Amino acid sequence: MSLESGLVSVEEQRHMLLLTASSQCDQTWITDGGSMVPVGAIADHIRIDDGHPIYFPGTYDYKGQGGKTCGLFPPYGDQYFFKI
Q: Is 4 part of a structural domain of the chain?
């Protein structure tokens, strides 16, 4: 959404796109929090300390993400712009 501002260079956009694409989930898995991360899901954010993708907004716990607080499924939408 902020790319239209013109403040993010094409090179920075390329880096962010490749980083985001590398986080795409290649198999469905159930988190320790009981939520499902479906194949094709795109990370909401990526932890800077260890590079783990977090698919649920509002948490930083890789293994326990999701649950009652953050939902049983990550937001759908962005994964349809990517191919595995």
A: no
